[in-house]
Amino acid sequence: MELEQIVFEIISHAGNARSNCFEALRLSKEGNIDEAYKFIEKAKDELIETHKIQTNLLQKEASGDKQEVTLLLMHAEDHLMTAILAKELITEMIEMYKVINNTKESSLNV
Questions:
Q1: Entry pTM
Q2: 51 is an active site residue
Q3: Distance, CA of 110 to CA of 48 (rounded, Å)
Q4: pLDDT exceeds 80 at position 106
Q5: What would the 3-class secondary structure string for the chain be?
Q6: pLDDT class for 110, splitting at 50, 70, 90?
Q7: In whole angstroms, what is the distance from residue 1 CA to residue 18 CA?
Q8: Which of 24, 49, 56, 70 ranks highest by number of CB atoms within 10 Å?
């Protein structure tokens, strides 16, 4: 597979992961915590696929098959890192919404 195709696969999976994370955030803001977690799981699956691609590139380089570092490859890595950060932060935000929703429900039942 050519480097350009590999790069676009990384961008595609990372973009899907990021989109799933923000959908999870939207759902959690609406109080749909269980649905939000389903989208976080979808994001994790996309990131696993991206990690497999990245690991393959790293293994090739370690075995002596050096790849040219292009601006496009750096762009793909930026997308990946942004998606990973989004997943981590939004997972924490979902936990906060969960606590907020539970607190609201508790105060309504008093």
A1: 0.89
A2: no
A3: 44
A4: no
A5: CCHHHHHHHHHHHHHHHHHHHHHHHHHHHCCCHHHHHHHHHHHHHHHHHHHHHHHHHHHHHHCCCCCCCCHHHHHHHHHHHHHHHHHHHHHHHHHHHHHHHHHHHHHHCC
A6: low
A7: 25
A8: 24
Block residue for tokens 């915590």: 33
Residue 30 token pair: 């609406």
Take residue 80 and report the two structure tokens written for it: 């990946």
- Tokens representing 93? 């935000």
Residue closest to 86 by CA, chosen among 19, 9, 7:
19
List the structure tokens of 25: 């955030």
Residue with tokens 């790293």: 58
Q: Which two tokens stand for residue 17?
A: 């992961």
86-105 confidence digits (pLDDT tens): 999 999 999 999 999 888 77
32 phi, psi to nearest 5 deg? -90, 70
